[in-house]
Amino acid sequence: MRSWMNTYNWRGPCSWVIGLAMVAMLVFYGGQAILADGRTGPVTLVVYAFSTQEEALTQRIFPEFEQAWEARTGRELVIEGIFGPSGVLAGQINLGAPADVALLSNSRHVNWLKVGRQVSARTEPVAVCQTPLVIVTRPGNPANIATFGDLAQPGLRLIHADPRSSGAGEWAILAEYGSAFLTAGDRVAARQQVTDIWQNVRLLAPSARAMLTLFELGAGDAFVTYEQDARLAVDRGIPLEIVVPSETIMAQHMAVLVDANLTIVERPVAREFVDFLAGEAGRDCYDGYHLRPDASGRDIAAPFTVDDLGGWSQAYAELVEDLWQADIEPRLNLEPAYQLLNSGDD
């Protein structure tokens, strides 16, 4: 090696050309090895999803997609699921959490990821499933609740998902407002209905799933949540009654690729996974977990969507920021959780 090297004047004018050529060869063969490993080694996909999706994803969707993908490619695929409140997950991803795919409660949380440059402005989220907002109350419906307006009756103790962390909390405010506004066309009366309902809120929960757990433990008389989560609770034998108001909003849940985290190997797998969620196979899986394939709400008298309220940007600014954060939240009459749990046994 030394005699070969000595035949060249490494300090001469062409030495840098030879050096670059050798570096290029190393990079080429090293890159080929990496790509070969990327084509044959196991692939891991990290999916961040809001809390009520855990059963559908872990029990059926993840295993079915892994099996189908492995059968087609001959490679091992491992999907890791991280679950929590939708708004919290979006914040974590913006801070660098390693999500490859995000399944979030609403499109506004996807926009957070675009603002945080985790999702490209060109990337479009995909609506993968829908569920109406319903009211959950105690068996027998002792307060005779039929509409969102009935939640304002004196003496009720309500639990509510926190709009600061939970997509369910945001959707619930839209349901409480829209059910009145789209019936009578009176914005002032609709805002008053939301204010009156929140006068009965005694406990905030960080997510829809946490709210259900508190109710199961005895807290509160009623709460607003996704139909899907309420029906899953019935499947598990939790004693409750579901009220589907004749005017309610259809919550649309979104999946999106987290562009900032995807490698060249992971991106096609992530894209196939989102296509699976939105396709016939995903719809079949979701149907077994009480999620709906579209926002028609055919069995509901007057279903509506966020578009009927001007879209997420307008609805959030008017109802969450201007009404809830500025006017309602400062005057909340919350109670300690232990007190509500004790009173629930009376």
Would you give an account of this structure?
Helix content is 47%, strand content 18%. It is α/β, with parallel strands linked by helices. The chain has 3 domains: 2-38; 42-129 and 253-287, D-Maltodextrin-Binding Protein, domain 2 (3-Layer(aba) Sandwich), CATH 3.40.190; 131-251 and 299-343, Periplasmic binding protein-like II (D-Maltodextrin-Binding Protein, domain 2, 3-Layer(aba) Sandwich), CATH 3.40.190. Helix 4 (86-94) packs parallel to helix 5. Residues 1-37 have low confidence and may be disordered.
List the main descriptive attributes of the protein structure presented here.
346 residues, D-Maltodextrin-Binding Protein, domain 2, 3 domains, eight-stranded mixed sheet, two-stranded parallel ribbon, 10 strands, globular
